[in-house]
């Protein structure tokens, strides 16, 4: 799918010869990753961007393709992220410099990552944490069980035992708790010395509910899904709630860097299980952040069965943004042809 158009390239108008909008589905551990890949063409140069499908936030492959195939500015943050990333990548390639330099410049060359612990039973949690700790990880993120309660405490206990007292632990609730339930449950997690509890409240919870939980919860909080609402994101960042930012949630690397600069509390960058295109964009943003980020959730490429771009991104506890022009990646046309859904 292609179109000829003009597009703002994050700092200047660039005449684009053609835009490809390609829906893809890639097998991954536990399911599939769906996204729309944007390829902006200018002569021999290409700019790459990725719009992850965030079904829990109302996006779909069909909707993203429609948004990205017309000349009307996109409505959803994921679509804006893909266009902004592709425009920045193209501009940086044209200028022969890494994308991080368009985001304010290098403030660090490598980013510490946290390990996503996917195991369920406590004994397997301990085994996975031990294995990832041996690989150099010092921060670990667990997903809260659907039923919650004692099961989460047992898993956190296993993780704390395996990781040791100096490691950082996080528990992500993905918005499963109401205000009353969160106020009742979070204090019981204090003995595990969490770095923060991520998104305990639903994404549409009011600012007042967050502020009340800050006072009564007894542990630090981080917002993820709630950052999709710009006014709420600014209020939470200003109130010192940690910001667990994703490019597809906020609308691109520039939005992530801007919110981090205005935040009064800790910041970190996570992934939506993107391909190397989205991960590279997030790494460039993380390297350009003015505040030093907490360990970032960007070691997720290992969960994909395949990838769509060639580049020097390797998994591990320390990741470096590719240093070549733009994102520092080259599109793998073979893989794109294999996983695209429009042919």
TrEMBL record:
Pfam families assigned: MR_MLE_C (PF13378)
Query: What are the record keywords, sorted?
Result: Metal-binding
The biological processes this protein is annotated with in GO are: amino acid catabolic process
Family annotation (SMART domains): MR_MLE
Superkingdom of the source species: Bacteria
Q: Which InterPro entries match?
A: DgoD-like, Enolase-like_C_sf, Enolase-like_N, Enolase_C-like, Mandel_Rmase/mucon_lact_enz_CS, Mandelate_racemase_C
Gene Ontology molecular function terms on file: metal ion binding
Question: Which segments constitute the Mandelate racemase/muconate lactonizing enzyme C-terminal domain?
Answer: 122-220
Recorded family membership: Belongs to the mandelate racemase/muconate lactonizing enzyme family.
Kindly provide the name given to this protein in its UniProt entry. Answer: Mandelate racemase/muconate lactonizing enzyme family protein
Organism of this sequence? Candidatus Nephthysia bennettiae
């Amino acid at each position: 799918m292609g179109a000829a158009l003009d597009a703002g390239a994050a700092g200047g108008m660039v005449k684009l010869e053609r835009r490809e909008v390609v829906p893809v589905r890639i097998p991954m551990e536990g399911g599939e990753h769906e996204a729309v890949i944007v390829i902006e063409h200018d002569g021999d140069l290409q700019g790459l961007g990725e719009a992850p499908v965030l079904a829990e936030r109302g996006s779909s492959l069909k909707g993203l393709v429609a948004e990205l195939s017309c000349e009307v500015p996109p409505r959803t943050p994921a679509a804006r992220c893909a266009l902004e990333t592709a425009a920045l990548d193209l501009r940086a390639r044209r200028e022969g410099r890494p994308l991080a330099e368009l985001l304010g410049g290098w403030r660090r060359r490598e980013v510490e990552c946290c390990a996503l612990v996917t195991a369920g039973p406590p004994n397997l949690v301990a085994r996975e944490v031990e294995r990832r700790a041996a690989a150099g990880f010092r921060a670990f993120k667990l997903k809260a069980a659907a039923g919650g309660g004692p099961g989460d405490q047992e898993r956190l206990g296993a993780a704390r035992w395996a990781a040791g007292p100096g490691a950082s632990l996080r528990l992500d609730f993905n918005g499963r708790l109401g205000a009353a339930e969160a106020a009742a449950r979070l204090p019981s997690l204090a003995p595990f010395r969490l770095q923060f509890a991520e998104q305990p409240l639903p994404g549409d919870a009011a600012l007042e509910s967050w502020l009340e939980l800050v006072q009564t919860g007894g542990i630090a909080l981080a917002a993820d899904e709630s950052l999709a609402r710009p006014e709420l994101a600014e209020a939470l960042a200003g109130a010192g709630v940690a910001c667990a930012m994703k490019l597809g949630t906020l609308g691109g690397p520039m939005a992530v860097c801007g919110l981090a600069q205005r935040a009064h509390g800790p910041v970190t960058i996570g992934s939506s299980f993107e391909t190397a295109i989205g991960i590279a964009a997030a790494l460039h943003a993380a390297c350009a952040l003015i505040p030093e980020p907490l360990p970032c959730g960007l070691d997720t490429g290992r969960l994909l069965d395949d990838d769509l771009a060639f580049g020097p991104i390797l998994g591990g506890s320390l990741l470096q943004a590719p240093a070549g022009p733009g994102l520092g990646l080259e599109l793998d046309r073979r893989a794109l042809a294999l996983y695209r859904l429009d042919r």
